[in-house]
Amino acid sequence: MASVVDNQQLQPTHNTAMDEDDEVLITADQLNSVAALASTSAAEGAAKSDKPDFAPLSAKDLQTKRNEIRRIRVPPHRFSPLKADWLKIYSPIVEYLKLQIRMNPKTRMIEIRSCAETEDVGAIQKAADFVRAYCMGFTAEDSLALLRMEDLFLETFEVKDVKTLNGDHLSRAIGRIAGKDGKTKFTIENTTKTRIVLADSKIHILGTYQNIKIARDAVCNLILGSPPGKVYSNLRTLSSRMKERF
Fold first, then answer.
1. Edge-to-edge, what's the strand order for the sheet holding 69-73?
2. CATH superfamily of 59-149
């Protein structure tokens, strides 16, 4: 009798377990709805974790209440050329870069200032490099290339930075760089597509980074005592390699 009672008591328990199994079963429609909810929640989480997207700022938005100013000192030997070429310097800075410029004779400096019409944030730095290149001794046409091209640089070094020379030895080194009637300097410029200015013991080079390196190596070899013929042959080899590369 006890076994029969036990079986009767266990019978409903087994039926409830089967009912629970039926409730646990998930249909295909339920799976699709769960997957859709998971995808939407993942998309919302990714959208929240993304970086904010801001519109680019214009020069007027970045402009502060105080205008930027650059002052470039003019050497005494560049006053006369500056008076003759003032229109060539003034026009591109005012018309192209939308800046204000003036010459202050008391301080002997060229002052450049941004204004409300300035559109480019880096315009004042370009103008300062342009005027600085002219004050170093480059012509206005060569200096103007700094405004038109982005990959041009200026490099300055002295003869004594390469080798300590004094007196006649220093004069002969400068003479080797210039050559007879400037032939050596012109050859280096034309081969490397750079511009070189010899200002006493200082040497200024204007050009791209790679071309400046080639011109600087040629000038350093001349300072160290290499004959011009050997420098010409090295430049000829380098120029042929550059033509093949392009």
1. 69-73, 109-113, 100-104
2. K Homology domain, type 1 (3.30.1370.10)
Residue 120 confidence class, pLDDT cut points 50, 70, 90: confident
Q: How many CA atoms lie less than 13 Å away from 19 in the CB half-sphere?
A: 6
Q: Pick from 220, 215, 204: which is nearest to 239 by CA?
A: 215
Find residue 155's DSSP bridge partners. Answer: 205
Estimate to the nearest angstrom the gap between the alpha carbon of 110 and the chain centroid. 25
**139 — pLDDT class (breaks 50, 70, 90):** very high
Q: Could you tell me the residue ranges of all domains in the chain? A: 59-149, 154-245
C-alpha dist (Å) from residue 189 to 15, 66, 194, 205 = 100, 42, 5, 9
**What is the C-alpha end-to-end distance of the chain, expressed in Å?**
105
Q: How far apart are CA 121 and CA 246, in angstroms?
A: 33
Sheet strands side by side (includes 153-158): 153-158, 202-207, 195-199
126-127-129 Cα angle (round to 5)? 65
The topology under which CATH files domain 154-245 is Ribosomal Protein S8; Chain: A, domain 1 (3.30.1370)
Average pLDDT of the segment spanning 199-219: 91
Residue 215 and residue 192 in contact, taking contact as beta carbons nearer than 8 Å: yes
> Among residues 167, 186, 184, 181, which one has the least CA distance to residue 222?
184
